[in-house]
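Next comes one such specimen:
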Amino acid sequence: MPQWAEYSTGERIKILRGERTQDELAHLAGLSPVRVRRAEQDVQLTLPTLLALSDALSADVSVILGQQAPRRGLGHEDRQMLRRLSHTVHDTAAGILQQDDEAPTVAELRAAVDRCWDLYWDGRYAEAGAVAAPLVRSAAARLHDQPDGARAGAHGLLADAYRVAAYVSNLLGQRDLAYTAIGHARSESAAAADDLRQALVDSGRAWIYLRDARLPDALRLAEKAAADIEPRFSRATVEQLTVYGSHVNFAAVVASRMGDKERSADLLSQSHAAGARMGGEHRAHGTLFGPVSATTQAVGINVALGKAGQALDLAGSVTPDDEAELSQAAQRRYALDRAMAQADTRRWDDALDTLEEALTASPEWARHQALPQVIVDKVGRASTARLRRVSTLIGARETAPTGFATATSRTAL
């Protein structure tokens, strides 16, 4: 498979067009069908034509020109959603509100924030992003309408909305937008004078650092965020333990990516202690944590540290009833970690069975995961119907690809 830059501009336009016809693209772009056909035949593009195609395809000009590759798994609707989300984040941060933006009640906004997080943790990222855009506008409108002296709560809700936007953007590979949104979330949480929200935002920024391969920065910030809210276990609430446990669990993930076994083990010990105090899984402030989360995350951490056998031993202690307590996205992520451990121990058929089950159960979630391709590459050239089925599910070839679709990171939250 050629690298993205090795395609001609016309070929790239055709690939981005997907299943739509040339006439349909022409209608979306406000161009004549002849102009679209000529563009795909590599007749030199004028700037107005290039910009019109960029808008219709919801793709940056740099992608059309081959200067950067498109994000694997993003369809036309995903790109449109991200563009709307980007416009909303930048406009609201600049104080630009639409005339028809209504200011819902605080209770309505809290319910909308919870709805966004539910979609996110169910692995419905495009839908979460579609809801996040009006949520950000509504929270900004609420803040604008709040009287002086009563704005702290509205600042907090706007921080929550920006944090959702940052998480969706980061998971879908839109790093610049993720950095921007999490920066605005930090400003709003500071204005709310809410230490817990600031720690949540810092942990979110640490995750962006992790996805951006800034591992030392990610670990430093993740550990600071956890330390800032470390509760006294003797009187900690379930809400406090949920947020703290998820923070320290994430710090353990970062340490494992750096190969720091000692620090990972120490952080995991703290994570398990928090989970044991809780007795079950809980959600709070857009985070999920409990004893099952601590164990399943430890499976992935051991895989990252090259301890596949230990990872599978841990997985053996997790029952189906335990798994049912996790969110849909957490269940599928845990399945990928198990599949990776099985592949690392040369249990090829088990790895493909586990992977196929996860991909079939959540195809929308699977579109945005890199690890399935890594597992298929590890299994190699095994000529089995099972391998062919899994390769079809992830839209991959059965052997390691060399083009722009190659997986480069297995990190997901």
Notes: Residues 4-64 form a domain with the 434 Repressor (Amino-terminal Domain) fold (CATH 1.10.260.40).
